[in-house]
Amino acid sequence: MNPLLLFVFVLAIFLGLELITKVPSQLHTPLMSGSNAISGITIVGAIVAAGEPGLLATILGTIAVAAATINVIGGYLVTERMLGMFKTGKDA
Amino acid sequence: MAWQTFAYIAASILFITGLKMLGRAETAKRGNRISAAGMLIAVLATLLAGGFDYTWIVVGLVVGAAVGAVAARRVQMTAMPEMVALLNGSGGLASMLVGWAEYVRADGVVTFSAVAIVLTILIGGIAASGSVVAFGKLSERIDGKPLLFRGQKTINATLLALALLAGAWVVADAAVAGGVAGVGIAFALVLLVALVLGVLVVIPIGGADMPIVVSLLNSYSGVAAAAAGFVIDNNVLVVAGSLVGASGLILTNIMCKAMNRSLTNVLFGGFGATVSKAGAAAQGEVKPLSPDDAYFILEAANSVIFVPGYGMAVAQAQHVVKELADQLVRNGAEVRHAIHPVAGRMPGHMNVLLAEANVPYEQLVEPDDVNPAMETVDVAIVIGANDVVNPAAKEDPGSPLWGMPIIEVDRARTCFVLKRSMNPGFSGVDNALFLKDNTRMIFGDAKATLTAMVAAFKEA
């Protein structure tokens, strides 16, 4: 048990709410797919589960690794692709 | 293990920086790459910590990377909403499975971890199955209309209570040394109910409300990852998951504001299906127009705005919209594309499509930019948009759309509405715009209609 995580959790939520203010509508989709890719961070937990002994845990972990990797790779690539289409004249 | 902690801190910093940059047009691309670098660091740090049997980890990574990369490359821009829903679902599924695996693995889990496991499975499960239903609705594999049945709310509430009760059983069991027999059933119940709830929560929501649901599910998958962080006692999951949860909430809130509705209303309202048709019946008659006649009006226009909606995505008409816009500009008209925040099926849907068609960013405007000077607009061309241009939102207090900020095309000198038929939009609300004196209906496939207009310009 680690109650300190609760502290981190609350602070991170507040940080997240402050971080994104007044997003232009052009960026709504990339922001969504890009942040979606970040939620694939659960891959860290999946790797731990897939690599530990125990048949059922390994099976569940392996599926979790695959699903999380789809989330991460698919999310970042699709965001990159969309942002590549936006031309604002400057670097974007 | 100190180096691993530092790696996770570095990853967290990169996520925070990346997400912040993703919110600004000039820095968005770099922001996405910075956040990807953070992900790479977090994954490498985990892998290098060692002590694993790598066989199945590698299998999962290779399969996932291949599927993800191919899907991201192949997906059409018009199919982006369902793609985002699927990605969301896989994230939620992964978190749910991590919770499950930890439950299987843990011998004598302490109470705090048991709470985290139950929450991870509950939120992850709802995000996973809810996203699958959202995918089905968005790709029209299942009916996009709200599906309502008697006692829906009671059933949902009962199921949630059941899940929490079963969850409490799992937690209580963890507190007792040795465990109580039969807790496996309680655990299975939590898992099952979470998946069923995800389906039931999304199924009553109509197509026009999808932008809200998609961004809300996005938020859930983040919170599920954060909960998984509590399970495996890992800071980087908690930080990254919370950030996503919060940003998803902000986006959800923007969408709700754009529809002038509260989140509870979207989630429990079953928009459109329960609406009493008490609103005043629209007066007037339909005035159809042929694309050729439309050309003569467009040819004389100095100021034209396009108002795209979901119908443009369905007809894949974004490229021909750009062509017509180019013709109009060549003809000396000022052209703008007015994009309503909830037009389409996900936040920013129309922006993505028009960007794909190379429409210059300068031509894209928001409702507040065009509404004040709408009287000076010669022609407003509504392409497959409906509720976001429905004047009932400001004229009819009895309408379910009442109070929603719209693009006020009814005040333009002339308004063309490109539409297949007179059917109402997803909300099921009649649109008085179609019957206004200055409105001309151009029936047929939007792409064919626009192509005919472009041809008329080219012949001239």
First and last CA, distance of chain B: 74 Å
Helix content of chain A: over 70%
| Average pLDDT score of chain B | 88
Total count of strands of chain A? 0
Count the beta strands of chain B. 6
Helix/sheet category of chain A: mainly alpha
Summed over residues and divided by their number, the pLDDT of chain A gives a mean of 89
Question: In words, what does this structure look like?
Answer:
The complex is a heterodimer of chains A (92) and B (460). Chain A is mostly helical. The mean pLDDT of chain A is 89. By secondary structure, chain B is α/β, with parallel strands linked by helices. Chain B folds into 2 domains: 195 residues, no CATH class; 169 residues, TPP-binding domain (Rossmann fold, 3-Layer(aba) Sandwich), CATH 3.40.50. In chain B, helix 13 runs parallel beside helix 17. The chains are: A mainly alpha (92), B alpha/beta (460). At the A-B interface, helix 1, helix 2, helix 3 and helix 4 of A face helix 1, helix 2, helix 3, helix 4 and helix 5 of B.
Describe this structure in a few short sentences.
The complex is a heterodimer of chains A (92) and B (460). By secondary structure, chain A is mostly helical.
